[in-house]
Design goal:
By secondary structure, the chain is of the alpha/beta class. About 45% of the residues lie in helices and about 15% in strands. It folds into two domains: about 5-195, Spore Coat Polysaccharide Biosynthesis Protein SpsA, Chain A, CATH 3.90.550.10; about 205-270, no CATH class. It contains twelve helices and eleven strands. Strand 1 (about 5-10), helix 1 and strand 2 (about 35-40) form a beta-alpha-beta unit. Helix 7 (about 205-220) runs antiparallel to helix 8 and helix 7 runs parallel beside helix 10. It is globular. The two termini are about 15 Å apart. The mean pLDDT is about 95.
Length: about 300
């Protein structure tokens, strides 16, 4: 059996110091990835010149104007020739020098897995920085792009990340796609990602609005009828409650994302492909209660591959 080939994929937007640090770690991985895929998404901070000078063999996509992280990742995935694509943020990198080998073994030993996620030591949650044991590996209902790896053949088989989301919540939509097709999302605690979580280019209110909008679009795409009505209302009220906790300024700006979501709803409904009811409700349970055994996961989602 031929060894699985493996790529590292990073999209970046004007965060050259973070990218330089991450690429330094990637360059030292042993074994190295078979491909390095990079996208400079509307960068004007010297990123393009740095990559071309220091990583001339990388597959390098340059957007003169920003297309958003999801469109950038889609282009990188399609440009890859590898079996497995490791997705990192420009401020995240593996803690383990043999990370590529571990990822190859994981996907070789788990043919049911379409997405593997990894625990993060991140400044966003300082309590994670000193954790030495992240617990057992589990079958889960979601993942984070900053610390994930993808079976490219599964991605090309499915719809893939929704480009109209631009940024955020594409992970959830893709997780539902995978589970609907009989693929698993697996959280492997045998390898760890260090995520510095740079706050450059992050706007909390803007990200909240985009997250809430995309959440609604995902619900209306994937949730079966008539449950979609209740789930949509519940999600909207949950976002409203979150805004209330953040203060009056957040609460007053909440109608902005309502309008954004409504404006995109006709296109969302045209693209509606709901998951089977059994799968969707099982996915909701899985997000709250991951399972450890393949047998338990297969009882809900699996089919022989």
């Amino acid at each position: 059996m031929n060894e699985l080939t493996c790529a590292v994929s990073i999209a970046t937007h004007n965060r050259l110091p973070e990218l330089r640090r991450t690429l330094g770690v990637v360059a030292a991985l042993e074994p190295p990835p078979d491909e390095l895929l990079l996208c400079a998404d509307g960068c004007d901070d010297g990123t393009v010149e740095y990559v071309r000078e220091n990583f001339p063999n990388a597959k390098f996509i340059v957007h003169e104007k920003s297309h958003g992280s999801i469109r950038s990742r889609i282009e990188l995935m399609r440009a890859s020739a590898s079996d497995i694509v490791i997705s990192l943020d420009d401020d995240s990198y593996p803690c383990d020098p043999d990370f590529v080998g571990r990822v190859r073994n994981l996907f070789a030993n788990h043919p049911e897995v379409a997405v593997a996620s990894f625990p993060q030591r991140t400044d966003e949650f300082p309590e994670t920085l000193d954790i030495s044991d992240f617990g057992p590996s589990l079958y889960v209902g979601n993942y984070i792009n900053a610390a994930a790896a993808f079976r490219r053949s599964a991605y090309m088989e499915l719809e893939g990340w929704p480009a109209d989301f631009e940024h955020l919540y594409d992970e959830t939509d893709y997780s539902i796609q995978c589970l609907s097709a009989g693929y698993a999302v697996y959280h492997d605690t045998g390898a760890v990602i260090r995520h510095h979580f740079s706050r450059l280019k992050r706007n909390e209110v803007h990200n909240h609005h985009r997250h809430a909008r995309n959440e609604q679009w995902c619900v209306w795409r994937r949730c079966p009828f008539p449950g979609v009505l209740a789930v949509s209302a519940y999600r909207a009220l949950s976002q409203l409650n979150y805004a209330r906790k953040r203060g009056l300024g957040w609460l007053l700006r909440e109608p902005r994302w309502w309008w954004m979501a409504l404006r995109g709803l006709p296109a969302t409904l045209r693209n509606r492909k709901p998951a089977p009811a059994r799968i969707y409700w099982a996915w909701l349970r899985l997000t709250r209660r991951p399972v450890a055994s393949l047998e338990e996961w297969q009882a809900e989602f699996g089919r022989e591959r």
